[in-house]
Structures are given as C-alpha cells and as structure tokens.
Design goal:
Structural class: alpha+beta
CATH topology of the largest domain: Heat Shock Protein 90
Number of helices: 18
CATH superfamily of the largest domain: Histidine kinase-like ATPase, C-terminal domain
Oligomer: single chain
CATH class of the largest domain: Alpha Beta
Distance between the termini: 50 Å
Strand order of the largest sheet: 2-1-7-6-5
Helix content: 55-70%
Number of strands: 18
Strand content: 15-25%
C-alpha cells in the first residue's frame, strides 16, 4: 500500500481546513473586539465631554455667585469697616481727585501724590542769593538760622534743608548731618519740599552724607530705616518718586532687600483703576466691572462699582482669592473633585495648573462676565465613568478567552491530527517493513522448494543444504510471526509472563549460541562475557530471551562496517545485560524516540536498513513488565550500548 504524502493525506486536508477556520474565527473576534472598543471609547468620550461641559457651567455659576456676593459687600461696606482676611487685598475709593485706600499704608506708591504744604520761595530769596550769587555761605547760614525761629513748620523745614546744604558746601559735613537729623525730628506730616515729604528728603540726604563720610555701618542702618518706611507706605508717593528713592536705597543696603511683589502688583492695579476711572464714569454712571490682571508676575483681580464721581473697588491678590473664593468653591458638594484653571486677560495662569493638551471645556471671560477664562481640563469625571473601563476590560477579557479557546482547541485538534498522520505514516512504514521481512524468507523457501521439485536426482549433500536453508527461513518466518503476535498481545495487555528464578548468564549464553548460528555466515564476531557465579533473576525465560535476541539483532543491523558485537552480564545490586556495538550510533534527540513502537532512527533511513520498528518497543515492554529498565548510551559514529537492568530474584 503506497502511503499518502503528508500534504495529500486526508488528515492533512482536515488540518489545513481547521487552521483556516480557526484563523478566520480569531480574525473575526479581533475585528469585533476592536470595533466594540472603538464604539465604547466614543461613547465614553461623548459622556465625558457632556459631564465636563456641565461641570464647567457649575464652576462658572459658582464663581459668579461668589463675585456677586463680593460686589454686594463692596457696595454696602464703608471703607473704615473693611478688614480683609488676607494682607494682599485692599479697598480703593476714588473721587474728586482724591484716593483713599484701606487698610492704610497698604500700598508702596499711589497713582498721584497728594499735594503737601510748602513755604513760599520768596522767604528764602536773600539766603539763596548769598548762597548762589555771592557764595557767602556764612551770611546765608545767618539768614536761615533766623528763619528757624518762626512757628510755621513749613518755613522751618525749608530753612533746615537750605541750612544743611550750606553747611555741606562749607565743608562742615558733621554739622550738616546734625541739621538733617533735627529736620527729621521736627518734621510734620503734610509738609513737603518740591512735592516730596520733607522728612523723606532729609533721610535721603543723611544717607548721601554718610556715604561721603565713609560710615558704612551707620549708612546701612539709616538706609534700612528708609527702606522700611518706603515699603510700609509711610509716605504717599507716586510711582516715579517711589522707584527713584527705592532705587537709591537698593545701592546702600547690602544685600539689597527683595521687593514685595504682591504690594507692587496691588499698587499697579490701583494705578490701572485710576487711569480708567474717567472713561468708566463717563460712559456708565453706575458702571461696574471685573478685571484680572497679571502685574509683575502676580495675578490681581479687581472688582469695581461706580456711582457718579465716586468709584469703589476691591483689589484682591492670590492669597485673598484662594482663601475667600477658590477654596470655598472646591468645598461645594457639586464641585467635589473638579479641577479647573483660570487664565488672565493676557492668557497667563491666575489659578490652578497650566492647561495641558487634550479634551477640555473652556468658558471665555467675555461670554461669562467673569474676570477670567475658565478652563476645565480634568476632574474626577473619569473615575465616575469607571464602569466604561471595567466594561472594556471584561469585554476584552472575554474576547481574549474566546480567542485563546479557539486557538487552544485548534492546536489540540491539529496536534491530534498530526499524531494521527504520524501514526498513519508509521503504520504504513510498518506494513511495508513487515511485507519486506516476510518476502525475504518466503522467496528463499519458494526458490529452494522449486529446485527440489524440479530435480529429483539432486545429490544428498546438496539436497541437505537446501533443506537447511529452508529450515532456517522457516524459523525466521516463524520468529517474525511470533514476534508480531507477541507484540499484539503485549499492546492488548494479554501477554502472560511466567516469572520463575533463572540464571541470566545461562540465558544470555544460550541466546548468543542460537543467534551465532544465524550470523556466522555474515562474518559477525559475538563476544559474550558471563560471570562464573549464577546471576539469578526472576523472569519469563521466553520473553527475556526474546528481548536479548532483539537487542542482538538490532546491534547486528546497525553495526555498519564493524563486525564486532559484545554482550556481557554484570551482577551487582541489580543484574545488567549489556549489548554493545561499534556501529552508527544514535543522536541524542532520538534516544527516547526509538523505544516507541513503529519508530526507527535516522540511521535506518540513511543506510536503507530494513526492520519493523517493534523490536526495541518489545524490549522496553518486556523489561518494564519484569520491574526493570532499559538504558541507552551512544555517540554518533562510535556505536551504542543497550543495557537491560533487572532486579535480582531468589
């Protein structure tokens, strides 16, 4: 029977069809999973967007409510009653050219400097003529000391300043320094010189003199006092004056003090309000507005209300906004977990984190009436929609399980089909090998029988030789048939074993003698080594003889050019029967395979060695039935050693 090629075997067609169906199923599952995931993500994105938009509307409404309450308080609160919860907020009232701020001295400088009272310049005309025209400093000093006797503080302040200046020009710097100190002590609020508070002028002049006199420690102390007065708003200066004096102080203080950014930002916000109050008052007598400004890197929010010539406003810095507006906002139950960002008019960050790229809800200031653009980037909405993630996970897990089941089932079936194909191939090879094994002795018997039938007058010696060959072929055929029958009974579990004590050495010697009769013609030399003492095992003599015979037959077949086969018996804790050849050897990958039924090694195929593939399988079956084991030692090209280990028997 000619076997099918693997690709034309019916089982092969079945395998290919099964794999194709499994591949289609897996592809369909993957496609369906991808489509379901995309649909689920689209639905999730839509619901996230809807909830994000709703959350943004709630944030806008809550901010509007907070600012409306702040504006109502602005309208109802008198300036003297305003007490901000944070230091970075102030109340601002402007009207009739005047500016009032509460808390007092909250600003380092103001949009305009209040006009101070000064003495008429004509009172100092004679002294200045002597100072500048005649360069007569002594006469100028005499005239100015006379003016110090007046009770008018403005006149005295002007006289002190000019007196100290003439003393300095006359080289009497110590006396000039004392006069500036006296001027500071006698200064009265509201008295100015050239529009600048008189005591500020005197303090600055003292620092200049101390620098000339090289008194760094005293200069540092005086400059720090001057710096503290400027920062605390002791003098109501305009922006230019404040920057001029603070710039000079920064040269004297080591190290220079850091500017208070929030106070400067509040001052800039008040200046912005002052510059815009006229347009707001003219266009809307009851004008109100909101503005978020980024001033010197600080976010200031201004809320104002106008009524006629009066403009009231609150300027809030970052601390006030956080504690009074934003923190209470985040404590509302309807906004729990919502995170948002507020942007100033110049798109700088006023609150929160810089909005990242990605989906977000935006509310522009011009549309909401708020001073900021509201951007809702992220929130706990993703956590609320956790069921989408869980559903996708379950869905993907289910599809993955189905795909794995399909793949696993396909692999199992394909493996079974491959085994069936391999078994079919082995059976086909077995039938072919058995046919060949039967053909050889049958052909021999037929030829010699025909020769005996055709010639009745054959010599007795020749006739006897023919009968000997026929007898040998008959025994070989009988042994082959018995082997097949025994193997069938072994596979079916119906082969009985009569276990009785026997000498393994004597058994091996008898098998070798019998086997030698069949192999001497082929030139094989069988070397048998058996111990003198009996090696008793408990076993079935016929079965063990069959196992030894099969090992000898296998060694002869695979000896190649070598004609030496050695068999020995060794008695130790167990009885070992070893059969050694110097033939082709067995690759490591085939040592476990060749003990299986119908399996033949690569050497058999390479060298065209005939066989049924059941000899070694019978050996393994017989030895295991006797409680022993079969060991294989082999090297490619160096031969093989098969060892039967059996337990000792009494």
């Amino acid at each position: 029977m000619k076997p099918f090629p693997p690709w034309k075997h019916p089982a092969g067609y079945m395998t290919f069809a099964l794999l194709a169906v499994a591949g289609v199923c897996v592809v369909a599952l993957v496609w369906m999973g991808v489509r379901l995931v995309r649909q689920d993500r689209a639905l999730e994105a839509q619901q996230l967007e809807e909830r994000r938009e709703a959350a943004a509307d709630r944030v806008v409404a809550a901010l509007e409510q907070l600012l409306a309450a702040e504006e109502q308080r602005l309208a109802e609160t008198e300036i003297s009653d305003f007490s901000p919860a944070e230091k970075d907020a102030l109340l601002f009232v402007a009207g009739s050219g005047q500016i009032r701020v509460w808390p007092e001295n909250a600003l380092p400088y103001y949009p305009v400097m209040p006009a101070g009272r000064e003495a008429p310049p004509r009172l100092y005309a004679a002294a200045e003529s002597a100072e500048f025209l005649d360069r007569d400093h002594e006469r100028a000093l005499s005239l100015l000391r006379a003016l110090l006797q007046t009770k008018d503080p403005a006149v005295r302040a002007g006289a002190h300043l000019r007196l100290a200046r003439n003393l300095r020009k006359a080289g009497r710097r110590e006396a000039s320094l004392d006069i500036y100190g006296e001027m500071i002590k006698l200064s009265t609020p509201g008295i100015s010189i050239s529009g600048v508070p008189a005591d500020l002028v005197a303090r600055r002049a003292r620092c200049v003199l101390l620098e000339e006199l090289a008194r760094p420690e005293q200069l540092q102390e005086e400059a720090e006092d001057l710096d503290e007065g400027l920062k605390s708003g002791k003098w109501r200066l305009d922006r230019e004056s404040y920057l001029y004096y603070s710039g000079q102080v920064a040269q004297w203080i080591q190290p220079p003090s850091e500017p208070e950014l929030t106070r400067h930002a509040l001052a800039e916000a008040v200046a912005w309000l002052w510059q815009n109050r006229q347009s707001a008052r003219d266009t809307e007598p009851e004008a109100a507005g909101r503005k978020s400004l980024n001033l010197d890197g600080t976010s200031i929010t201004v809320l104002w209300r106008g009524s006629g010539a009066r403009l009231s406003a609150i300027a809030a810095g970052p601390g006030y906004q956080k504690t009074q507006w934003f923190d209470p906002l985040l404590q509302r139950p309807d906004l729990a977990g919502v995170r948002f960002s507020l942007l100033n008019s110049d798109n700088t960050l006023a609150y929160g984190n810089q909005p990242a790229s990605g989906p977000k809800a935006t509310r522009a200031a011009f549309a909401t009436g708020l001073p900021w653009d509201v951007v809702l980037v992220n929130s706990n909405l993703e956590a609320e929609l956790g069921e989408f993630t869980q559903r996708r996970q379950f869905m993907m897990a289910g599809l993955a399980i189905l795909a794995l089941l399909v793949i696993a089932a396909s692999c199992l079936i394909a493996r079974a089909v491959r085994r069936e194909m391999a078994a079919a191939q082995l059976q086909s090879d077995f039938v072919s090998a058995v046919s060949h094994e039967f053909r050889t002795p049958l052909t021999s018997m037929r030829q010699f029988t025909e020769m005996l039938v055709e010639d009745d007058n054959l010599p007795a010696g020749k006739r006897r030789a023919f009968y000997t060959v026929q007898e040998r072929a008959t025994r070989r055929l009988s042994r082959l048939v018995e082997s097949l029958l025994d193997f069938g009974r072994m596979e079916a579990g119906a082969r009985p074993y009569r276990l009785e004590p026997l000498d393994a050495g004597q058994l091996v010697r008898s098998v070798v003698d019998e086997f030698r009769e069949e192999t001497t013609s082929e030139g094989f030399a069988l070397e048998c080594t058996v111990p003198e003492e009996p090696s008793v095992v408990k076993g079935d003599q016929e079965a063990l003889a069959q196992a030894v015979w099969n090992l000898l037959d296998n060694a002869v077949k695979y000896s190649g050019d070598s004609r030496a086969v050695r068999i020995e018996v060794e008695a130790g804790s167990r009885v070992a029967i070893r059969v050694r050849d110097r033939g082709f050897g067995i690759p490591p990958s085939e040592r476990e395979q060749i003990l299986r039924k119908f399996t033949r090694g690569s050497a058999a195929k390479a060298h065209g060695i005939k066989g049924t593939g059941i000899g070694l399988a019978m050996v393994k079956h017989i030895v295991i039935a006797h409680g022993g084991r079969v060991l294989i030692e082999s090297e490619a090209g160096q031969g093989s050693t098969f060892t039967i280990e059996l337990p000792k028997g009494g």
